[in-house]
Amino acid sequence: MKEQFPLLPKIVNGGIAGIIGVTCVFPIDLVKTRLQNQEIGPDGSRMYRSMVDCMRKTFRKEGFFGMYRGSAVNILLVTPEKAIKLAANDFFRHRLMDSSGKLSLKAEMLSGGGAGLFQIIVTTPMELLKIQLQDAGRLAAKSQSASSQVSTSASKIAMDLFRQRGIFGLYRGIYATLLRDVNFSVVYFPLFAHLNALGPRREDGSSVFWVSFLSGCTAGSVSAVLVNPFDVVKTRLQVLKRAQGESSYSGVGDAFKSIMKKEGISAFFKGAGCRVMVIAPLFGIAQTVYLFGVAEYLLGMR
Question: Is the entire prediction scored with pTM above 0.70?
């Protein structure tokens, strides 16, 4: 008979991991968004030559706090987002175990996919609002106007979308988000479990700290690179305001075709390095929080 699934500490652990991770890596995520949104001009010109160039120009023009533009909405919503993702995967794994407590690869992939499917309820509006704020500085620089003319608050963007299109306005780009997050989870969670199982164990059968951390980093990096094309398309579709001369897209299929035609296959891997630098520590931290059972201590369960 299976043990009762401890849902509450799983949710709390996911939320704690999300807040810590986002705070640490948000500036790199901002750079990723700007690199993915920039298009190469007809003469081959580009605003940012590389990740380092983008970070340097952003910091010089917008300062330290400019590197955290959009972080408030991300920190607010990453708690339920990571809680859903990590807790849902553990819940599905728990339910799909056979009588001997083992899980097939198919069941692991289904568990991961289910977690990715559930998380888009929170992920899509969170990413939509975050991207507008992150990209505001790039748009301002490109139009050579003051940042305040293109920047706004997350609450104003949300209210404008709600008034114009109802609740579905906040779910612009949901299909691309679905493709990214479900495929990411299908790869990440089984890969993490198998990598984690390769390392040494403690006397109680739990993983050694560094094994879980490195497994989370490695699985996150591999998964991030594999789904980066979906992330590029999602980012482009969720931008509500584009600079003059930049492309707009009618949907996922149109975005894939247009980007491929105008920019080539390399465009689908824009920001991949940044994404790895964001995802690797984020999921390494998440697995560390799970390993130490932070929530269990806070809830008095240990």
Answer: yes
